[in-house]
């Protein structure tokens, strides 16, 4: 599965929102290890369309994540 974005979580050191395939995940990662300490799936998109996934994401000035 392809990782298409990594967005840091404001005010939470070592926490990031990432895409992995069709899933949005919250991970804790120290920046040095080869894998995250924890990874929790926040949501999956369009389970009926397995070829769809995320391309890009950005947090706006209010801290909201926009992904598509």
Number of domains: 1
Low-confidence stretches: none
Shape: globular
Determine the structural class based on helices, strands and strand pairing: mainly beta
Rounded to an integer in angstroms, the radius of gyration calculated over CA atoms is: 12 Å
SSE string = EEEEEE
Overall average pLDDT: 91
Main beta-sheet strand count, sense and barrel state: 4 strands, antiparallel
Distance, first to last CA: 16 Å
Strand content: 35-45%
Helix content: under 10%
Count of alpha/pi helices:
0
What's this entry about, in short?
This protein is mainly beta and 68 residues long.
Tell me what you see in this structure.
There is one protein chain. By secondary structure, the chain is an all-beta fold. It has one domain. Helices cover about 0% and strands about 40% of the residues. The protein is built from no helices and six strands. The strands form two sheets. The chain has a four-stranded antiparallel beta sheet, with no helix packed on it. The protein has a two-stranded antiparallel ribbon with strand order 5-6. It is globular. It starts with 5 loop residues before the first strand and ends with a strand. The relative contact order is 0.26.
């Amino acid at each position: 599965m392809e990782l298409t974005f990594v967005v840091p979580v404001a005010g939470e050191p070592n926490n990031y929102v990432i895409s992995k395939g069709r899933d949005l995940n919250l991970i804790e990662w120290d920046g040095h290890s080869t894998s995250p300490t924890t990874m929790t799936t926040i949501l999956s998109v369009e389970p009926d369309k397995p070829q769809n996934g995320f391309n890009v994401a950005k947090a706006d000035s209010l801290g909201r994540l926009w992904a598509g």
